[in-house]
Amino acid sequence: MDYKNYINKTYEPFTIEVEKGRLRFFAQAIGEQNPIYQEESTAQEAGYESIPAPLTFPFSITMDAGQSFNVLEDMGIPKTKAVHGEQGFIYHKPICADDVVTGQQKIVDIYEKKGGALLFIVTEISLSNQRNEPVCDLQSTIVVRNG
User: Fold this and answer.
1) Span 41-67, pLDDT tens digits
2) What is the pLDDT of residues 72-120, one digit of tens each?
3) What CATH architecture is 3-17+54-145?
4) Where are the domains of the chain?
5) Predicted structure pTM score
6) Is the distance from CB of 135 to CB of 94 less than 8 angstroms?
7) CA–CA dist 49, 24 (Å, integer)
């Protein structure tokens, strides 16, 4: 299959409300002990509108929105042949509890290595808040074992 035809494909936008409990749980799960991730008053004293999202939380937003596998499903690639190869973040503004985050995923590159044995799919997702302010851009690379 000529997967390169998928380059520049843009998927439907998604929207997620960021909940305090979800942020607290995520912070605990990653071992984050800074009280700004648990106590709203502490977060506000530190200059945040509410409890901020830990730095890797934007990836969880994309997972919660079902963005993790839509590219593979669209291309007819079994999940068992794919691994998450790389993740990058560009932060513009903190994501905080009660934000309503909207994003949209786009395939930006597809290439092969090892004589076609490995397929690399690069996607970008731009996230903005309810004020249409950019908050985070994510770039992910999915590695697919061909054959």
Assistant:
1) 999 999 999 999 999 999 999 999 988
2) 999 999 999 999 999 999 999 999 999 999 999 999 999 999 988 999 9
3) Roll (3.10)
4) 3-17+54-145
5) 0.89
6) yes
7) 15
